[in-house]
Specification:
- The complex is a heterodimer of chains A (about 150) and B (about 130).
- In chain A, strand 1 and strand 2 form a beta hairpin.
- The mean pLDDT of chain A is about 85.
- The radius of gyration of chain A is 18 Å and the shape is globular.
- In chain A, the strands form two sheets. In chain A, strands 1-2-8-7 form a four-stranded antiparallel beta sheet, with no helix packed on it. In chain A, strands 3-4-6 form a three-stranded antiparallel beta sheet, with no helix packed on it.
- By secondary structure, chain A is mainly β.
- Chain A has one helix and eight strands; from the N terminus they run H-E-E-E-E-E-E-E-E.
- In chain B, the strands form two sheets. Chain B has a four-stranded mixed beta sheet with strand order 1-7-5-4, with no helix packed on it. In chain B, strands 2-3-9-8 form a four-stranded antiparallel beta sheet, with no helix packed on it.
- Chain B contains no helices and nine strands.
- Chain B is mainly β and about 130 residues long.
- The radius of gyration of chain B is 18 Å and the shape is elongated.
- Classes of the chains: A mainly beta (about 150), B mainly beta (about 130).
- At the A-B interface, helix 1, strand 1, strand 2, strand 5 and strand 8 of A face strand 2, strand 3 and strand 6 of B.
- Strand 5 of chain A pairs antiparallel with strand 2 of chain B, so a sheet runs across the interface.
């Protein structure tokens, strides 16, 4: 379902982003200008974005969050999700692995220009935060009838 | 991609990342041990209880889960950090752990496994007598 993302403009956006991130890792900096708000590889939580003509859906894969401590805001077409995941370290236990993210996070997503910042819904289920932003009706494709 | 590593091995690993849909995501885990046994905490966001599978085959503990998130009909993907729809990771257990008594809980996408030590393997203090 998220196999080959195409970006908001329909191009192979994700392939480009992936290549960019790989170059970033290899050479330290990309030769191409990237999105100024693009996050570094491996930034927590991972995000998936999808859209339909009616809405834009943003999914944050952030398990074990206290949804009350989440701060979701939208300014024009800029969605910001900030929060904190504090893991409790077991006292007196020996840790073999500590791979899970612990601490504050903040992710910013640039949405298409036609989103309606007044119609945003967020839900948290099974560790996934789903933010659905409605788009303005004018931007939806319409069938024009020929008379 | 499957992995069978001893639960207690301390090799550093990188963050989970899966690129294409055919590949399973390796969930990030915290593993610690105390007097009574080993605890594994795994991040598996998007997995519900019905789609989680924890099983033991001889001495291999495997955790698997399918991502199931509400997606509107006809949605087109724009961007994805997570491409795969399945998590998978396995560990080999050593003999002193009691695989029969594993306790699993799943809450908000975090799986917690408690693997107790066999009773006869619980640490006890050895008294040193003076002769």
């Amino acid at each position: 379902m998220f196999g080959r993302p195409r970006g908001f403009d329909g191009g192979l956006f994700d392939e480009y982003r992936r290549l960019e991130r790989e170059m970033d890792q290899l050479f330290g900096a990309s030769p191409w200008p990237g999105n100024i708000r693009a996050a570094a590889l491996g930034t927590w939580p991972p995000i998936n974005i999808g859209h339909t003509p009616e809405q834009v859906d943003v999914y944050l894969f952030a398990a074990g969050l206290d949804s009350g401590a989440l701060d979701i805001s939208i300014q024009q077409n800029l969605l910001t999700v900030a929060g904190e995941r504090r893991l409790i370290t077991e006292e007196g236990a020996d840790y073999y692995r500590k791979e899970r993210y612990d601490g504050a996070f903040r992710r910013v997503v640039t949405l298409p220009e036609d989103v309606d910042p007044d119609r945003v819904e967020a839900s948290y289920r099974d560790g996934v935060l789903h933010v659905a932003i409605q788009r303005r009706a004018a931007a939806r494709p319409r069938q024009i009838e020929i008379k | 991609m499957s992995e069978a590593k001893d639960v207690t091995s301390q090799t550093a690993r990188t963050a989970p990342e899966a690129r294409d849909a055919g590949q399973a995501i390796r969930p990030a885990v915290d593993i610690f041990e105390d007097r009574t046994g080993i605890t594994v905490q795994a991040d598996m966001p998007g997995v519900s209880r019905e789609r989680l599978n924890v099983h033991i085959d001889s001495d291999t503990l495997s955790i698997e889960g399918d991502v199931d998130i509400p997606v509107p009909e006809g949605m087109e993907a724009v961007y994805a950090d997570i491409h795969a729809t399945r998590y998978r990771r396995s560990f080999s257990l050593s003999g002193e752990l009691d695989a029969e008594k594993i306790d699993a809980t799943l809450r908000d996408g975090v799986l917690i496994l408690r693997i107790p030590r066999r009773e006869e393997h619980k640490p006890r203090k050895i008294e040193v007598r003076t002769g």
